[in-house]
Design a protein that fits this description.
By secondary structure, the chain is mainly alpha-helical. It folds into two domains: 104 residues, no CATH class; 131 residues, Outer Surface Protein A, domain 3 (Alpha-Beta Complex). It contains 13 helices and five strands. β3 and β4 form a beta hairpin.
Length: 255
């Protein structure tokens, strides 16, 4: 291992993102005008990547506010990969704790939905489960089967804010309804035929998918879904999820 090379790279990256100091062994290099141009180019690329990955937030807060916040985040958490479509995992938590965003308490949750969109978009392809496979099972075998969510599906329940309504309107570049009920909302995102699509999700659906992701069988997942949403129509829920291609094929019998 070349420790000198590793040390140089570490100090170089620190200098680019503004965490170096005058005592740095690269101080002579970083003080040159050419380095400042390079640093600005790298930082701009990071901010541009965040803007591309969080378009809903850009629309909500405006380009200038967003780029100022994104620059602060980029300096604190530089990209770890050259694949910038993956950059910004920590941006959602950053926005939730960002002082200037205190008057927009929903911003972090809305950003999380942008992040879920990206995760759906870049996830691996998997064949979806077909309804006929479930229909061929007897009741006992069906209840003991485990349904595994596909890699390209994401869901989230926000108990305190209408994050989905805010996200959906801005993602679709349309105006919000004048009267927005400040209740909890959830979202289901999935990739179908190469396109990420979305729909509202209730607490029961999200609880059901949480249980499926944890490897629980259908009987247990259904019980948790009904516990979260007592009025839930389970048959309709399953139909909605199958139509959304939420599950991978094949499913796993657990007995």
């Amino acid at each position: 291992m070349n420790h000198a090379s590793d040390s140089f790279q570490h100090e170089f990256i620190r200098a680019i993102y503004g965490v170096g100091d005058s005592a740095s062994p690269l101080a002579q290099l970083t003080g040159q005008p050419g380095f400042k141009v390079y640093r600005n180019t790298v930082l701009k690329a990071s901010v541009d990547a965040l803007a591309a990955n969080y378009p809903t937030i850009v629309r909500l807060v405006g380009e200038e506010w967003f780029r100022s916040a994104a620059l602060i985040h980029a300096c604190a958490e530089p990209p770890e990969s050259v694949c910038l479509i993956e950059y910004g995992r920590g941006f959602t938590d950053f926005l939730s704790a960002f002082g200037p965003a205190a008057e927009l308490p929903y911003l972090g949750e809305v950003a999380r939905l942008d992040r879920l969109w990206t995760e759906c978009h870049i996830a691996a392809d998997e064949a979806p489960l077909e309804a006929a496979m479930l229909a061929a099972l007897g009741e006992v075998d069906l209840l003991q089967s485990a349904l595994r969510p596909r890699a390209s599906i994401r869901w989230r329940w926000c108990a305190d804010q209408p994050a989905y309504s805010i996200w959906q309107a801005n993602r679709e570049q349309r105006e919000l309804a004048d009267e927005l009920s400040w209740d909890g909302e959830g979202a289901l995102l999935s990739r179908i035929d190469g396109q990420v699509v979305w729909q509202a999700a209730g607490p029961g659906m999200c609880a059901f998918l949480d249980a499926c992701a944890a490897g629980e069988n259908l009987q247990t997942a259904t019980a948790k879904a009904v516990d979260a949403e007592p009025a839930l129509d389970v048959a309709r829920l399953l139909g909605t999820l199958i139509h959304a291609e939420a599950f991978a094929s094949p499913f796993t019998p657990t007995r």
